[in-house]
Structures are given as structure tokens and as C-alpha cells.
Amino acid sequence: MAPPRCICEICSCGRHRCYHRPTKIYDDVVQPSHRTEYVEKYPGYGNICPPESCKPKAELPEDQGRMDGTTTFKSDYLPYEIVARPFRPQAEYRPKSGKIDLGTIYQRDYNPHKVGPVTLARPRERKHTSDAKVDTIPTYRDDYRLWKGERTESCKVERAYEPPSERFGNPSTFQDDYIPRQPNPPPSFKPCETKLAEGPFDANTIHRTAYIAHELGPMFVRPREEYKPNDQPFEDLTTHQRDFKGTPGEQAKSCKPEDRKLGSDDPFKGTTEFQDRYQPYLVTPPEFQKPREYVPPTDKMDLKSSNRLDYIKHKVAPRTPIRPAPGRKSTGPFQGKTTTKEDYQPWSVCPPGLIKKEPEIQKFTGKFSNLTTFRSHYTPHQANPPRSFKPVQIVSTAVPFKDETLYRTEYTPKKKEVCPGQQLDALGYVYVHTDSQGHKFYRQVSPERSGSSCSSISEKVPAVS
Questions:
Q1: Measured distance CA(33)–CA(435) in Å, rounded
Q2: How many C-beta atoms surround the C-beta of residue 420 within 10 A?
Q3: H-helix or E-strand containing 434?
Q4: Which terminus of the chain has a lower count of CB atoms within 10 Å, N or C?
Q5: In whole angstroms, how far apart are CA 16 and each of 8, 113, 439?
Q6: Distance (Å, rounded) from C-alpha 414 to C-alpha 108?
Q7: Is 18 exposed, middle or buried (CB count within 10 Å of its CB: 0-12, 13-18, 19+)?
Q8: How many CA atoms lie within 13 A of 247 on its CB side?
């Protein structure tokens, strides 16, 4: 019997893998394996710093003088003289003689008919009513009969309530377990009374005392290379124009239809039916009423109103305010002492000194040469152009092109192989077990064995999907 194999071993395409992590159904003794294909093939390297950027720093552009405000449009624009559009006089309206035919097709073809009321096809409803009184007995009253049953007596023994004469003596759990203890106050960590240091505060730091300012030298400016134009004329002939020669053939015919003149040569008549039959109506202009002229009064205006004449003034005392009177303000100094200020005194805590390590690499004291290793060791070489393998001249022939290749003539199609890890049940694989690392093992059942052996294996170890 062949040993069981994992999905990682059965798979041939490399896409089917087992999950290398433990779950709740596995044991927690074995540590999870973090081994992957990427970690095995690509080992890690040490700490490598990224290369420094050679990009120049952004600086302000130099002043290039005052900008000229003239543009190409201003220099090349020529104003033209504007001529007024000629006014076209409107032709005088002359109404036509005769009467307007106001008849329509509806009035001519419509024949009126006399219409009567519509007769209803539904018969009238007939109600059969009677004034006699209904003397009947319902089915429930006729069939229902009362039973002559006796009421059952209660078996409950009645006992009178007697309140207890003794006191309830069942203590609670809190009363049994609680033990009263004497409070023990925690020790006070409040500092003792200290006096503040006299004199000014010394603000000198190690950076201020030990810092030495160095002068920076002038920045290296690379001279600008002068532009030297080429004396030879520019060759505007491309490789396509030089080597391409069109194949001989007939010129393509245009599918555009020929331009044919539509309409007639008669002059256009700008008159419409509205202009021919329109008759203007005489409208009288509206009459405007002239306003009356304002005449100012000659008498003096009486400014006494009924309120001023009939008002009686009463002597009423002002209402007393409910707001209390303001107290006396003390002129002495403000006593800003509080319990916190009197009892609390700041600690005289000295800051810890700066722990500075000695530099392992000594600083360079000389002038920076601004010369890189690439500039010092670079040796310029003359570039040799590559040899061109392009044919000198292409001769076009009228023989048809043979598009047969070795791939087309000698290619033999092969059947695509299906990965066995994709269809385990179809290939006869039976699930066996799963180890602690998460690998699922399957055993292939050979087709020569009978179905009893297969059933015995499946019954012994059930498959887990």
C-alpha cells in the first residue's frame, strides 16, 4: 500500500497548498511554521541605506530684467475701419380687397344630428317587502339544554394566619463575613518645606557654551557650456520616406455621391399667408388724467392732539428696586493666599545632566572638494555606432507572399494536463488525516481493488472537506 501524500506533494502546478497554521481542532504543542516559498527562494539582506539623492536643491531664479508687455497679437494686429450696416427700409403695407373666407373643413363636412336621451338596458330592481312579524326559534335555542349539575366542594383546609411572636434571627451573608477594622491612613509623600534658590536663573546650556560657528566657503558654480550650432544643413528625410516605396496599384475610387443642385432658379418669394391676409386694427391711445396742482395751506397748523389735551398727569412715587444695595469696597491689597500656597512648597529638583557619547568617527576638518568618486575615476570613451543590418534596397515583386512558417508546418497540438490537486475525488483520492501543522493527507485507491476495500477505508476514517 502506498503511503499517503499531502496536497503540496500531489499538486503539479504549484497553486494548491495546505494552510500552514494550526486551528482549534489541532494540538497547540507544535509551533506554527511560517515557511513560505518566497522566504525559501529570496533570503533577506542586511541593513542597506538608500543612496543619496543627486538632485539639485531648489533655488530662487535670478532677476532677468523687466518683462516686455508686447505680445504677437499686439504687434501683428491691424485695426480695420468699422462701417455702419446699411438700413433696409420696410415696405408699406397695402391690404387686399375683398372678404376673408372664414369657412373651415369641419364646418363644411359636419352634419348635425338630433340626439335623444340614452335608454338604460339594465332592468329596475324589485324589492319584495312585507309588514308581518317573524315568529321563529333559532337552532341554538332549540337544541341547547342546560345540565342539572351540582357544584363541587373545595378540599382546601382553611387555616387562620398567626404572626410569629419571636424576632427574625437569620443574619445575612454580609453580616457573617464582614469584620470591622480600624482605618489605617496611608503615609504622606508631601515634601518638606523648602526655600527657593536666590539669584537669577542660569540659562546657559552645553549647546550655547560649546557651539562654534564655522564660516562657509563660496559655493562651486559649474560654468555653462556655450552653444555651437552645426554648419551642415538639417536632413529632414526620415528612414520611412527614404526606404518606403508604395506598391503599384489602382487609385481608390470615391464613394461620395455627386453634387446635384436641388431646387429651382426662380427668385425666393418672401411673402407669407400671414402677411397677405393680416389687417391692422385701429387702436385709440389711452387718455391720461392730469394731476391737480398742489396748493399749500395759508393757516398755521394746530399741533395739539386729543392725547395732549385730555391727558391728566398723576404724581406717583418711583418703585423701590429689589436689588440689594452695593456693599462697601475695601481699599486694601488683595489677599491671594490659599491653603495650597501656604502648605505646598515646590521641590528643589535639579535637572539631570546631558549624557553625551564620544563620537566614534572623527569629523572632517578640511574643505569640502565637491568631487565625487564617479567624477574622479570616470574616463570618457568614444562611442562606436552599432552596425546596421538593414538591407540596402528592397525590391517589390508581384509574386504573392508565402506566409508559411516552421511553427505552422511543424506544430503538433498537445493535450492540456489537469492538475491532480484540483480534482481529488475524480482521481480516486481518499482523505486520511490532518497533521498538527495543517497538512491534509490523501491516499489513492487503485482501480484493481474491489469496492469493499474502498468502503472499509472510508468507514474507518471519515473524510473532512
A1: 13
A2: 19
A3: strand 429-434
A4: C
A5: 7, 91, 12
A6: 88
A7: middle
A8: 6
Q: State the average pLDDT over residues 43-67.
A: 74
CA distances in angstroms from 87 to 82, 129, 270, listed in the order given: 15, 94, 18
**Contact in structure between 9 and 441 (CB atoms under 8 Å):** no
Residue 215 has pLDDT above 80, yes or no: yes
Cell, residue 314: 398723576
pLDDT tens by residue, 223-256 = 888 888 888 888 878 888 888 877 777 887 888 8
Q: Could you tell me the three cell numbers for 23?
A: 486551528
User: Across-strand partners of 5?
Assistant: 442
Is residue 429 within 8 Å of 461, Cβ to Cβ?
no
Check: pTM over 0.70? Answer yes or no. Answer: no
Cβ within 8 Å of residue 2, ≥6 positions away: 443, 444
pLDDT of residue 1: 65
Instruction: Quote the CA–CA distance of 328 and 266 in Å, as a whole number.
Output: 113
Q: For the chain, percent helix, then strand, then coil, each to nearest 5?
A: 15, 5, 80
Pairing outcome for strands 5-6 and 440-444: antiparallel
